[in-house]
UniProtKB/TrEMBL annotation:
InterPro entries: GlcNAc_PI_deacetylase-related (IPR003737), Integrin_alpha_N (IPR028994), LmbE-like_dom_sf (IPR024078), Ricin_B-like_lectins (IPR035992). It comes from the Bacteria. Pfam families: PIG-L (PF02585). It comes from Paraburkholderia rhynchosiae. Gene3D superfamilies: 2.80.10.50, LmbE-like. This is GlcNAc-PI de-N-acetylase.
Amino acid sequence: MVPFLVFPATAQAAAPDCRIGTAVTVVAHLDDDLLFVEPAISERLHAGWCVTVVHLIGGANGARFDYVQKREEGTRLAYARLAGVANDWDESTIRIAGEPVFELRLKQQPRVRLLELRLPGGAVRGGRVPLGLLWDQGATLTTYPMGHGEIAPGRYTRDSLSATLRSVLEGATRIYTLNPDTVPFIEHPDHIYAARITRHVAQSLARAVPISYFVTYPIGNWPVNLSGEQAQRKRDVAATYFSVDGGDVAQVFGEYEWNGDWVQRQYAHDDSTAHVRPDFVGTPSVLFNAASNRCLASAGNGREPVLAPCNGSMQQQWTWEPRTTYPGNEHDAALVSAATGQCVAEHDGKLAEARCEQWEPSQRWTPWDFGLIFTPSRRCLGEEDGRLNLRGSASLTTRYRWSALRPAWPTDLRLAGAMYEDVTGRGAPSAVYVQRRADGPGFDVYVQALQAGERPVRWYANAVPFDSRAITATCGEDTLCFDSARFVLGDFDGDGRADLMVITPRLGGTAFWLLRSTGRDFEAPALWFQSDHRIPTGRAQQYIAFANSALMRRRILLAMQTSGKGAELWTVGDDGTGHIQQARVLEDDRFRFDLRLLAVRAQGTDSASFLAVQPASNGARIAVLPFGFSNGHWHAGSTSLLPPVFQPATTKFSTDHHPADANNAIVMTVPRSSEPGGIDVWESSDIEAAPVLLVSLPDEPWQDSSPALLHSGSHTTLAFYRRTDAILDNTHFSGGQATLLQYDIDRREGNDRPEAQLQLPAIYSETLWLERLSQ
């Protein structure tokens, strides 16, 4: 065996220094590494590692060779940007374990190497899967031509592909691949086979190597878990690739678009090649229904599963187990209850658990990427009126979307959609929301008056041009970009109109950019304050605006996470002499890193009162810690617990928006306890007293409900900025038009229907921004 022979010989860059480590990534397609593995690859590269990326598949299902070349052109451009060097590569066709491989190495950063095997691709949602035929059926696959088409294709069998990958993996000190432990078509069959082949070969190495398995399509509706700066860098690289493959960067800068769904997310399971695993290791998980906020639950032998409040029990754990079939066939999975070990079967449109049978057609389901579940009769599983329902799989809403991860309030970082303040100076609050732009990483800011018939007005346009040929980051330290920005409304200049503060990372600390309100629009950003390294955005849990003097100028209170899983409080604002200063004002070992700050005393006095709400020590209750400022000092009071109905995972908080010189109430929403569906809204004007049920809203979805209690004169309304339950196609998890609903709270009878509904020309998923780091 000759591992590396150049064919034909070409001039090569100097051998890279890989003493720190070599990370080898093996994926199916030429965008899998950029969308699902990143930022793991760039982090290793910037730490001095060598990185080798193996793409098994060339092009896509049935693609011509020119599309293979186009995708490789895109991945060259993307990796040059990832490395921060010119898009100039050494190219050669080499032989690894006797088989031809097209090798690319960056000239100015030779620690970056791409290996293109150019095998034919399989169908994403049913159809021929060549890689599966090679691995399971003993097929021999002919690759696309090598070089630029002038070198003959290779021919791979299971043994020769294994030998080629083994030669590549022998030098790895870290291995990345995709998720082997799932079934088509939750993830692309090519993804699954690429991962299983990689695991099988890696386990044959004579040493233990850390290996990570990255989940692909399902993460699109899992909680965001990459920081803003990580997401911005990843979005740059992915958009660079798609500027060539398809030419549409909007699918990356948009969040609800299918390729944009994965930019802010990265989920992986870490293991070791020393742990020998079978081809499939099923792990039970929930099946969470997005619209009803309920989980599929086993009701026992012979009975139909039900929807029930999610509680983490074994009755709500399910496994998709593969069934023997020809690679690429649908109806290839059984839905197995972890509690009973039985399979869910469909007979005459009815579901029931029964003993599992390998070849029983009534037990063969097709779980689909993007959250759809097709029953054995090819209908879709969903929810209507709080119960399971089967129907044809066209014109579906979120009621027919399922997730293997339940989005809980403490983990779901899609937090803030609208802010409410008096930005016009007319004595009435307006809704302010930020819209992600599709032409780059910028954003636009809209103001919506809360009266029927009013249309939103764009008060500020923040276009950030994207250059796919650049090798530097699109978002510099003086550029306001959506992913890394945090937003706060408040009257920071004392003119009676609320201004917009945009908070971004800069110079190792935090930049506070003030967009002053003129009453008709927001002025261009001006740097209001630059913090030092003691309050970096990467540790800033939350920012809120407050005022505690007759000057009426708002200051910012922020909670900084500490290394010991705690938090400390800082302020930024006018120190009374006209200078903006930062100051650490309160440390208390009772503050947790995942606290939520709420202001409960309005401006206009020399004191300020706040609450920190956070999970109690046992995690099952919510602890409330009051603190405040009076007589020139900050102090904290005694901790109390909210009643058990308020669970940390499902309780959402807001303070109401009172006029000046009034105490604020705390508004809390939880899923309805009396009946399935909807939410209960509670109010607490005195934290020492029990909260009072304000209203039950059977039609408000918990997942999208963010409450705000608004006051205009003597009128009080409960407002929700949420998503319309729109019809979604089968390649979108989310979407829907953003909607503002208002309920008349002054009229206590019959107020479970909105008095006003404003349809906004905005995509709900595109307006959600990061309010807090951890919840």
